[in-house]
Amino acid sequence: MKEVKIESTLYVYENIEELPVEAAHLMQKAFQARDRAYAPYSHFNVGAAILLDNGEIITGNNQENASYPSGLCAERTAIYYAGSQYPNAKVVRMAISATSKNKPTSNPIPPCGACRQAIAEYEVKQDSPIEIYFMGEIGKIAKSGSLANLLPLVFDKSVL
Ligand code: THU
Fold it and tell me: Which is the catalytic residue, given 64, 75, 123, 131?
């Protein structure tokens, strides 16, 4: 038996002013999308903005449903739309921001496991890393250089 350690690396920016200008612009798009979220049940609004290698910016937000599991997260709303509209484009980066009506969100809020799995599919498909920037409403922003870094031991097509 041997121990196997798995490491992930995040880069943490103090605030949006410290971000590279292109990432800050994408985060602003995520803010705008977040503010259009349909989240009457959780009151937890999430926005995601995606930059494609053709220059297009695609945004999405969470869409909830009275039948709770029928709702969808912001990140998947955005990436499925990008995949459906631009099937041959590569995803360069994604910016995510979340706010809650129940409590302040001033720490980086990472994408849920299901969204990581969904984004991983596109990272594997395009064979190049997708940068992920995530934050709450204000405060620090975390950057992951790839989706794989956020989802070690990914389940992908290589096992099928
Ligand atoms: N949500 C997202 O949009 N993205 C995530 O990564 C986690 C959760 C949404 C789903 C639901 O509408 C609300 O946030 C509370 O879970």
Answer: 75
In terms of C-beta density within 10 A (0-12 exposed, 13-18 middle, 19 or more buried), how is residue 80 classed? middle
Structure tokens at 27: 């985060």
Confidence of residue 133 (pLDDT cuts 50, 70, 90): very high
CATH topology of domain 10-150: Cytidine Deaminase; domain 2 (3.40.140)
Residue 75 designated active-site: yes
Q: What is the mean pLDDT of residues 31-40?
A: 98
Q: Render pLDDT for 57-113 as a digit per residue (tens, 0 to 9).
A: 999 999 999 999 999 999 999 999 999 999 999 999 999 999 999 999 999 999 999
Tokens 């129940």, located at residue: 102
Ligand 1 centre and the CA of 98: distance in Å? Answer: 8
Give residue 1 CA to ligand 1 midpoint distance, Å.
39
